[in-house]
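Handout, tutorial session.
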Amino acid sequence: MELSRPFTCTECSQTFTRNENLERHKRSRHGSDSRRPFKCYTCRARFTRKDVCKRHSERCRGAFGRVLTVPGAEGEPEQTESVIDETAMSSNGQDADDSPEANASVDTTVAMNDETYHDSSPETGGGTVSRDLLSSEFMINHSESFIAAYFECFHPSFPLLHRQSVRRDMPKLSKQILVAIGILYSRPRHSSEEDADLVLRQSQTLWQDGQEELWRLVETDWREIRRTWVMQAWLLHIIYGAFTGNATHFDKAKKMLRWVVDAARDLGLLRQSVFTSTTRFHDGEEQTLHDHWMSYVESESMKLCMYTILFLDSHIFSPCNIRPLTTPIELDWELPLPGSLWEADTSLSWAQRLGDEPRTLYLTRSGDASGIPCPTTKSLNLAIQSLMTDTPSPQLLAALKASTMAAIFILTSLESLVREFTRCYYQMPPALADPNAFHILTQSQNRQVSAALRYAAEIITAQLAQANSSNWHILKFADRIALSVKLALCKPDDLLIGGIVENSVVAGLTTATHLTLGLQVGARRSLQNLLRYNSGDDGMLVFLDDLMDVLSSVTSLDKQDPLREVPWATVATYRILLAIWRLLRWATGEMRRKAGSRTTVRSRFEASTIVFNSILEVISSPEELESQTRRLSRPARETTALGMTSDDSEARFMEMVLQFWKDRPVWSMGSFMTTVLEEIISAGGMAYELRGAE
């Protein structure tokens, strides 16, 4: 048998009768770069045929003309590609020349390219040419500062990229999206609004060009998505398009997310065993410490990408009430390893941080990946099931403590689980024995989800007490999403119950704001709730301390820097603020309803009074709070004082929410939601009638 099939694949054990069959197998199954010798110097794609590579390179030069079109270079394509690779793409490489002469050469080339690009555009006027030229020069010459802004502001909250390896040899598409996101975080520093709008348009242009080139890349060979840098660039483009507030961008991001989910399924990337079977290191090969480190980086990078797909599927679609594309059951990857390993600067530092944790022992042992000693960390689904028990695995708790990203992914999956329970429950008729419109899970199910939340929250709370500026935002987001799940257990999403599906994150938040002012949940759930008084909101007293902590952190920044907040953290915080807003409206409505009744000592300790005073204490200034305390200390005037302040409380709260969005101009949804809140205030937000107060 072996004599009849003499050609053996070096990557796997498969044999072939003919050499050309073996070569075709290597190209299709293993994607070996050595078997595709022709390389596009724009996007780093490789091809087996020179003519296909040439056509692809011409499309790249057409798409990125301002950088790639060099006057007089049409007859020297190889020289042009070499210049591009050395200047525009490899400026961060280890062999890059940082001399003034080299920098001057790069700047001159970029200026010539920009000038050629704009002169060839018939739709651009003279003044716009100069402004766009300066903007392009500024962006290219300051790309390092924009990339630094990305790693300073965005990366600590969501470390998708491996900082030490990605900056060593960065493909152009990766560099482009990092610059685009870095521009967003650098934009608030511009003194004039005109300059800020100018760089924002430049950022959007970079994103648009990048996502078009990514589509061309996968249309040429859809299996290119298996490359780690392609997957990372793809996901970053989804993040940018989904949270900029533009409906067109959101549609494109949604299309990219749907495509990458299907591609990951078809290629088997959702299963760790399939991905690791094509690793570049094999048994019998001598591996250095650096090889072990790079093998870890390659596997961990794809792992984080797969978890990010599940994460974005939830945090992009749930604000719009769109059904998710994936479930935690599909994702068969081990939980992320400790974050300290991911942030190691060198292979030696990485090896020193391995320590004695059982999950890291196999990283330096070839072919020992199957012996992971903690079964509950081998997949997201197993981890969630273990947390829902009374005795979760100690190794699992240690893994969550070592990796905040792992805790975030678990909390995101719990939130999706509660939403699915809610969606199914509200399709059933209400039980007459339990007509409460807000009861979702059974007592047993509620206890299990609450147990998982308790274990995760204890770890996050303990780490928050010792957090610094580098990890405060990611820990605070984990804390916010845990609170969101708690709220969802008793207060379902208005869009979910109302059956409303929106076409963007901003549209979903806008609709949720208007529904908060109208209390549509009870009306949608059951006619019986319209015919009787519903006092279900007093159950929120259980979460009052947690809600006031969120409200206090929003009004007093402390460690918080709103300009460094990732967009999904802003969305999660705002949805909690909507829950507080709804609670405030219920409390003021209750107080108005009982305003004519006789004042008693008991009324001072009713749920509505406690809620109202707690919220007012946070949003009021010290002078107003002292004056309010003196009035409330007089029982005879208690009802009048409360009636006076309740009229102004919601207006003050709306101003606080408006300031919340004004403090977050980095992502464009901040300006969109500022406009929405200003329109509500100008229209008279108090005009909305609270149904429960009737």
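The second record follows below. Compare its token runs with those of the first.
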Amino acid sequence: MKYAGNVWDKDALKNPETEYQTLLALLKQKQGFGMLFVRCSPAEGEQIIKRTRTDTLQQTVHVLRLDQPVADFYEVLVDKTDVHNANVLFVTGIEEFLEGEITNTVDGELGEKLKHIPRPLAHLSLLQSKLQEKFAIRFVFLLPLFALKFFINDYPELFDNAVEVFEFPTDMELLRQETFRWVGGDRFEAYGQLSAEERDRKYEDLQKLIDAQPLISERRIELLLEQGGLLVAGNRCQEAISNCDLALQIRNDNHLAWYNRAVALDLCDHHEEAVDNYRQALSFKEDFYAAWHNLGTSLSMLGRYEEAINSYNIALRHKPDYYYSYGGKGLVCSVLGKYDEAIEHCEKALAIKPDYVQGWFSRAYALESIGQYGEAVASYDRALEYKPRDHQIWYSRAKALEHWGNYTEAIASYDQALAIRPDDYYAWNNRGLVLNKLELYEEAIASHDRALEINPDDHFAWYSRGNALSGIGKLEEAIASYDKAIQISPQETQVWQNRRLALRTLGFE
């Protein structure tokens, strides 16, 4: 897809399978030079490379791993003779070429602060025409979020030249609502359970108390931060940031105000600024373990994984039983493809707090990633014991059962997810795909129809609906569905192939 201005819309997380199929179709269809940016985790990137090699047998796929700095990216390509016969070249490690400086953190640890001063590789926009003259290759750059943001913000001209961008959400992003916590007392957990009307009444009550306080007082700061927590609970994050600003006008060294401001920024997806705010909080309170933890999570969101693990370790140094940080390390290890380590960290978290839902979920995710589907399902079941109305857990459990080959149980899990969130068109479409595998084509069509009622622009749902219609011999209707898919995404070669097959069966080719 063409870059359209937002790197990631939290309300419209991309479906990884749909993104992959679109990427694959583009790689199959287009010949010659091209540049694609794929925002993904390292583990997801390895899966994309592996699947592409399997799914594009007629093309030569190579990988260039930039694991150390080079003086000239172009010269590296010229010198690598095996690259010249490639049709597709995956490039990993591009983020290593964003120049940084090593600085001391407030805890005395070494940390990296990115400077927007690029090394030679960052001049891809200048190299683009030179690369095109020399290489008839589709370059696929696999990179984390912070690197993609760097290129979009500092080199927008690169994205004016037919560069394609694909995004694969990480497990951390799918669990973002569990990740950031406002600090200030147990009452903030309860604010999330209030109705909108109840929160509005509480907001007015707090405002009256704030107005009754002296302009400069600790009590006024406390009330402003409490009101900010109420605003965050109602997804009014920008207003919460303003509340923190008012508190900081009274006392600029208030570590809780800086911390809570960072939480609100994270929830608005402003992770770079959030990182700066957590560091401000830590400059006033070095042993603030919750800030170290959230700093790690913000860095994870940006794809700065080693820094994230370092932050989690510092949090655990200050509070060894802080199970959230073990859970955070588990998530990062999964993102990096270190699944055994991920399971170990999750189990440490669960040993401290057996009802830690995210720990069970993350453990299941890691187990599923190494093909231990039965154990993964059991881990999802433990998570559901504590949180039976969680849509994401039911959805992920369904995917694990599907991979395990237990299609009937997978459908039942999708049904549970849809009972909680009937507007999840990914679940409706995936349910249809499983029904298709069971050759229950009429039910599959009904599922795809429900998905398309919610999102009529999902080309993959139209394609899947066409396949189900072909399964019961309704070839004219199948062709109409394929046509809708092609209208939305013309580069899908598999859709064209299935459409031609349907036409041939009808005697038109």
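Points raised in discussion: The two ends are 32 Å apart (CA to CA).
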